[in-house]
């Protein structure tokens, strides 16, 4: 073995003596992580059983799904209030004032007379 | 409180001391909810993982982060571990080195502020200073090596693992390990040649 090798071996030996200790706070953090992992493993079922709005939200497609739903609702309301020219006015379809009002040309006194 | 900060001779050699449960057994106990097993595993494997990370990264804070993350992956992997399939320490060294390489890719700088504090209370102050200077010089020289050479040299000469075990950790052949460590040692010897007297080594 050459001097250079001996010198290097001495340096390695010094490094081995010095590199074997774990800082106390790091050891504590490692153990705390282990505790967290264990508790996550014990309690996940409870997490899953709890119904929440979040689950409903996710079921409807999350932000993307809810965004589409909101846009569709807004478009429906807008078309209902101000329909384009080629569509019938839904308000007129519901009420139809003149065509179905059989009594529009009668006065109140005439109605009384009719019913006797 | 049990000392978790130093490593036993038996654990360093890779085998549990006579009568003590193996790393495999401790990992199974931990997977079954035994927090005491986590304490034993931290005492055995934590120092090794931290020591390797520090020698490879050359930075104390980064080494702490890597060592903590490597142990976190061990805790999470525990339920899926198949005892007898591989050595837990081999798995952990591999994870630690991969985390070191990921960190190096994200932060490609070389830090040299990470020499461990001298731990031997029996030494005098000049001896401690000289020991720290030697470790500092070695770390500085290690940081000049290419990544894979540094990993192989650290595993072989500081962690004292066998070549086949290093080959398993680094996923290369035993011949490749021998080549990396030989080239690494030559480069280290060359880098340190001018500092022998300064570090208190006399010529024989």
Automatic annotation (TrEMBL), chain A:
Identify this protein by name: Dihydroorotate dehydrogenase
Q: Which organism is it from?
A: Ruegeria sediminis
UniProtKB/TrEMBL annotation, chain B:
CDD domains cross-referenced by the UniProt entry: Sigma70_r4
Q: Which family does it belong to?
A: Belongs to the sigma-70 factor family. ECF subfamily.
* Name assigned to this protein: RNA polymerase sigma factor
Q: Which Gene3D superfamilies would you find in this protein's record?
A: 1.10.1740.10, Winged helix-like DNA-binding domain superfamily/Winged helix DNA-binding domain
Residues covered by the RNA polymerase sigma-70 region domain: 44-107
Q: Do you know which Pfam families this protein is assigned to?
A: Sigma70_r2 (PF04542), Sigma70_r4_2 (PF08281)
**Boundaries of each RNA polymerase sigma factor 70 region 4 type domain copy?**
136-188
Q: Which UniProt keywords apply?
A: DNA-binding, Sigma factor, Transcription, Transcription regulation
The reply to whether Transcription regulation figures as a keyword in the UniProt entry is yes
Write down the species.
Ruegeria sediminis
For the keyword GTP-binding, the answer is no
């Amino acid at each position: 073995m050459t001097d250079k090798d001996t010198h290097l071996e001495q340096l390695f030996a010094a490094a081995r003596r010095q590199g074997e200790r774990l800082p106390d706070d790091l050891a504590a953090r490692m153990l705390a992580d282990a505790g967290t992992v264990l508790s996550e493993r014990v309690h996940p079922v409870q997490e899953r059983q709890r119904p929440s709005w979040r689950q409903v939200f996710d079921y409807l497609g999350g932000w993307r799904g809810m965004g589409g739903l909101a846009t569709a609702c807004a478009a429906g309301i807008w078309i209902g209030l101000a329909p384009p020219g080629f569509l019938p006015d839904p308000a007129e379809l519901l009420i139809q004032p003149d065509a179905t009002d059989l009594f529009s040309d009668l006065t109140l006194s005439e109605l009384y007379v009719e019913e006797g | 409180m049990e000392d978790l900060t130093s490593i036993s001779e038996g654990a360093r050699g890779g085998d549990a001391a006579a009568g003590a449960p193996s790393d495999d057994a401790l990992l199974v106990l931990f997977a079954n909810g035994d927090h005491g097993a986590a304490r034993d595993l931290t005492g055995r494997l934590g120092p090794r993982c931290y020591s390797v990370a520090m020698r490879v990264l050359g930075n104390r804070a980064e080494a702490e982060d890597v060592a903590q993350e490597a142990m976190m992956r061990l805790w999470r992997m525990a339920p899926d571990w198949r005892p007898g399939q591989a050595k837990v320490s081999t798995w952990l060294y591999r994870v630690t080195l991969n985390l070191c390489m990921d960190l190096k890719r994200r932060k490609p700088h070389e830090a040299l502020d990470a020499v461990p504090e001298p731990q031997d209370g029996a030494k005098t102050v000049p001896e401690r200073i000289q020991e720290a200077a030697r470790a500092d010089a070695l770390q500085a020289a290690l940081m000049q090596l290419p990544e894979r050479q540094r990993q192989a040299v650290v595993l072989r000469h500081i962690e004292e693992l066998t070549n086949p075990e290093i080959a398993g950790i680094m996923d290369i052949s035993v011949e490749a390990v021998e080549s990396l460590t030989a080239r690494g040692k030559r480069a280290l010897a060359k880098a340190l040649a001018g500092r022998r007297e300064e570090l208190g080594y006399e010529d024989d």
